[in-house]
Amino acid sequence: MVVDGIDETDDTVDRLFHALADATRRDILRRCVRGELSVSRLAVAYPMSFAAVQKHVTVLERAGLVTKERRGREQLVRTDPDAVGRARQALDELESAWRARVDRMSGLLTEDVTGTVGSGAPAHDENTDENTTEGPDG
């Protein structure tokens, strides 16, 4: 759906790949695939502040890659199992679009090299006069 020139799907994909672009966030995602972890437990694993890890988790959450659930004083982080599927789907769509472009370019190059246009008929050369009966010497 496009709203004011912004495609919501593109915005979602942008958030997804922005989140995956950072090595720390990818590592958090891998750790949480094995099982839910508290933000404080995650923070111990990184040479940064608790607040910095919390921000990384928030980016992952906004992208839909993880969910947070409060249990008592802890915030438990869990990877969304469908998130990888969404990333894969976005990449598959990009791959399909680029393969179609490459196929079209390949077709154009083949036409240029063989001098044919689509149906196998020779391409019309504007510099050739079909009614000329002159020999090779002009």
Describe this structure in words.
The chain is elongated. The protein is an alpha+beta fold and 138 residues long. The strands form three sheets. The protein has a three-stranded antiparallel sheet. The chain has a two-stranded antiparallel ribbon with strand order 1-2. It has five helices and seven strands; from the N terminus they run E-E-H-H-E-H-H-E-E-H-E-E. A hairpin with a 3-residue loop joins strand 6 (116-117) and strand 7. It has helices spanning 8-20, 23-33, 39-44, 50-62, 83-114; strands spanning 2-3, 6-7, 37-38, 66-71, 74-79, 116-117, 121-122.
Topology, element by element:
Layout: E1 2-3, E2 6-7, H1 8-20, H2 23-33, E3 37-38, H3 39-44, H4 50-62, E4 66-71, E5 74-79, H5 83-114, E6 116-117, E7 121-122
Antiparallel strand pairs: 1-2, 3-5, 4-5, 6-7
Helix pairs in contact: 1-4, 2-4
What labels would you give this structure?
138 residues; alpha+beta; three-stranded antiparallel β-sheet; two-stranded antiparallel sheet; 7 strands; elongated; disordered N terminus
